[in-house]
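Researcher: Please predict.
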Amino acid sequence: MSAASSGEPAAHLATIQHETDTATPQILQTQLGCAHSLLRQDTAKAKLAYTAPVIYELKRTNDVEFYFLSGTVLCPPVGGVEEQYDGPYYRYFPDDGLHTMAAQAARYLSDQSASPEELAREVRRQGMAAVQSAEACDIIQRGIQEHPQGPFDGILGFSEGASLAASLILRKAAQGSAQLFKFAIFMCAVLVCHFEEKDVILADETSMRITIPTVHITGARDPGRQASMTLYNLCEPSCASLYQHNKGHTVPWGPPVKDMAHEIATVLKQWNCKSES
């Protein structure tokens, strides 16, 4: 069985390179594992497993290349990943707090009757939001700066990877520093962890916003869909697009993948036009 069919979603990040001679986006996929917060360092199949549908379609229809960045925190395998891929296994977070929070919070975030932010506050009241992303952000930022294919134009995150990508972008904004990326793609995001406090970041409690263009992909049957919406609400609405497929916490094969790739390709084409002007 491949990781893509194991039923346990991975958390991925990908960054898209800029300043190439041909203005071709080159995507560096960094992932938080084959089971939410784990990373299999040296197997391309494991790294591609859960974002493979979109990666395949983007490569088929656009001039893009993908690269990969490993986590640095050695950790044990979870979710049966050791039955599919040999170790070692790595992640970005120093512990499994984000994975635990995301899994436990899903039962609250499945409620569609309240606002995403109010549901997230219930997660907080239940004591599940005590996760800080600073160390993980440091690992990603250092990896990006040291990567031989950097710097990068965009970042793509799936699940916990989307949360971490958003944390990194918001931290740069709060610091008043130049952004690392020109656009971001978030897939099935979990709640965005604060980069300074053990808490989550909610749009109706902060003035911080992600102002670069963003694409948000969610699943109608994803138990944590409302978490994705808390991230969408943290983004500048004039440059944020939202696409919902009819599956769960996954990136499905089939007809939806063409629509998802189209949403992303629209941003890539805008980037190419600007880079050539």
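Model: The chain has eight helices and ten strands.
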